[in-house]
Each structure stands twice: as structure tokens, then as C-alpha cells.
Amino acid sequence: MRRRLLALAVTLVGVVLVALTVPLITTYAEDRTQDQFVRRLAHLNRFAVLSQTTLEAGEATSLATDLERYVEVYGGSVAVVNANRQVVAASGTEVDAALAPVVDDALSGRTSPSPPTAWPWSPGSMTLGTPVGRDAEVLGAVVMEAPTDPVQDAVAGWLMWLVVGGVSVLGLTVFGVVVPFVGWVMRPVHDLDAAARRLATGDLGSRAHEIGPPELRELGRSFNSMADSVQTSQRQQRDLVADAAHQLGNPLTALRLRIENLGQPGTDSERVGAALEEADRLDSLVGALLDLSQVGAVAVTPEPRDVAEEVRGRCAMWEPVFASLEVDVPGGLTAMSAPGLVDLVLDALLDNAAKFAAGSAVAVRLAEVGGEVVLSVRDHGPGLPDHDVAKVGDRFFRGREHQNVPGTGLGLAIVRARVADVGGRLDVELASGGGLLASVSLRPGSRGSSAPRPGAAPRAR
Which residues form the domain of 70? Predict the structure, then answer.
């Protein structure tokens, strides 16, 4: 829209400049042409007076001399003819076919009318003639072919200056008036676009300023109403999930207590244990739903964090769980993250590795790849079928082989949502040589100091 407004405004300004320039250069060219015509006609009339005596007496020597001098000074050609169209005196070129109509008009007693305007692209001369006679008798005619080069050069010079001046005025008008004016007109649109972008990135409190023309103010009000509806809908959804998780918590606690009371002597302890496991699983599911409901509830502002130090610290806590945990975390890596995000990511990824690839070697690496800081966890377990890999991270997804493994199926869904809040992403793929490779990519932060502390980083066993 901005380009269209600029194109329209520039076109209108250009049309106005052309409308002002064309009459100006036309008037100038006509004035210069008429000025030369009047001066040359005055010279022609002078020669007509001199030619009167020559035509009556038949002596043209002195007249020929005057014509020669005139042509030397002003250029062109001048000729005097009698009533029989015979050249009496001439200077320059002979009377040719171009002058024949002028001779006919002059011998008919008519003086040449004003010639066409001398433009740079017009023929380079004008022809004019006047009769020579006494009273009503026409004795002959004086004809002239006058060059228009000076007029054409002057008109071309003025035309060039007008074009240069017009382009300069156009440029100054565009950058000094049109561009600021279009920017002022488009300001409400840019404000609405910025509000829409903020809303799309998760800032549900983003609102547009209701400014500008009535149509844009109405559009801003409609956008704000839509944003209010979206914010209200999401708040209601989060509140519903949170309330449901909270309300389910108390019955679950009571159910567990009652089941524990059933575990008295004489009862089926195996069945009681199974019931307790299901209660624990349901309690974990409610907790995961509660965590998932909080995603997007509060705007997250990413900040540069020493992720290398956080990774080393979290891996140190998980080291006893694995038979072999390889940690490759170079110092000095920071990324745009949020407090507790690295812990959440590693807890989910390492917990999955411990459950689904039990007994296999696990490698944790942190590196800067392609302008991103990538945290990866790779196991050497059985992996997943190809068609299931793309589903990893979906809510409640569990592979067919892992239906009986404890868990809610929401861990990676929470990780993916939390990572997306800080502008990162979660990728899961089959690793070369077997197992799964889960990678979290974050935007790089400023370089910081994350030198490893003695004993902080786990060592491969």
C-alpha cells in the first residue's frame, strides 16, 4: 500500500510539473520564433524599399552588395525577383522549390504569415517573403530563407534546464513532502501491523492505537475487539485446565489415602499396589496438565544466559542414573533462554532416555551450529519406527512399544512449548547407528564466562 501511495503521489506531482513546464517552454519557443520573424521581416521590408528603385531602373549592383553583406552577418539567403519571377539580385543559395510558394504569395501582394514554432526537432530554417511595388502595382518580391539554429539552440537550452529543474523539484517534493506525507498517512497502518505481529508472537495484551482516518480507526477498534476475544478465550481455556487439574488433585489425594488404608493385613496387596500405581499415574497426568496450562499464560522475555554452566550442573545431578553419560559442553556458550528452561529440557530428555533406552550410553552435547546454540541428547536405545518419529512431542503421544512404560506423554509437549516461548525449537530424529537424537536450538546470546568448575561436569564412565 505504501508503494502504491508513493507511485500515485509521484505521478500526480509529475503531471503537475509537466502541466506547468509545457506551457512555459511553449510560450518561450513561440516568443523566440516570433521575435526572429519580426526582425527578419523588418529586414525584408528594408530590402523591399531598396529593391523598388532597382526594379524600376534595372541596376542591381549596389543591391547585390547589400545582400552579400547581410548574408555574411545574419546567414541564410536573400533573393530579389521581378514580376516575371526572374532573379534580379541574390545572395546565398539560388531560389529553389522551397521558396517557390513564398515567391508566389509575395507576387500576389501578400506578406508571409508567422512561421511555425522553431523546436529543436523542427527544420532548421524559416522562409518568408514580401512584395515590392508602388501603390497597387507589384514590381517584384524579396524572399528570404533565414536559419533558425539560434532559436532552436536557445529553446533546447531552456528545455534542458526546465527538465533538470523539474526533476530536481520532483525529487525535493517527493523526499521532502510526499514521503513524509505518505508515512504520516501509513502510520496507523504500521501501528496496526505491529500490534498484529506482537499478537501473533504471543503478546495477547497487544492493542492497536485507534488513530488516523475514520476507516482506520474503525479497523483498529475491530482489531482490538478481536484481540480481546482471543485473550479472553485463551484465558478461559487456561483457567479451565487449571481448575480441572486443581479440582482433580483433591479427589486423587483422597483416593490414594483410601487405597492405602485398604493395604491392611488380609487384603489383596497386589491389587492395592496396582491401584496406587494408577493413582500416581493420574496424579502425574494432572500435574503435567497443570504445567501445560501455564504455557503462554505469562509473556516470556528471553535473556542471555550461561547455558553451558546450567547444562553441566543439571547433568551432574543425572549422572548417577546412567551407566555411561558423556557430556561435551565447551565453555563460553550463552543463549537466549529463560530461568529454569535448561533444567526443564534436560529433565525431560534425560528422563526419556533413562526410561526408553535403559542401560544404553547417553551423550549430552552443547555446541554452536549454524548461528544457533544447540543442546542435544542422544541415546543408543531401540529408537522408534520411522512413521512415529514425526509424532514425538505431540501431546499424549506414546510409541506402541512404550505403552506400559510409566509416563504421561506430555513431557516433550511441554518442552516444545516452553522452547518456542523463547524463540527456539525442538527437533527429534533417528540417530545414526541406532537410538534417538533430540536437539533443542536456541538463539545465541552474548559471550559470557562459563569456565568449568572443578568437579562440576560429569565424566564419561
Answer: 2-155
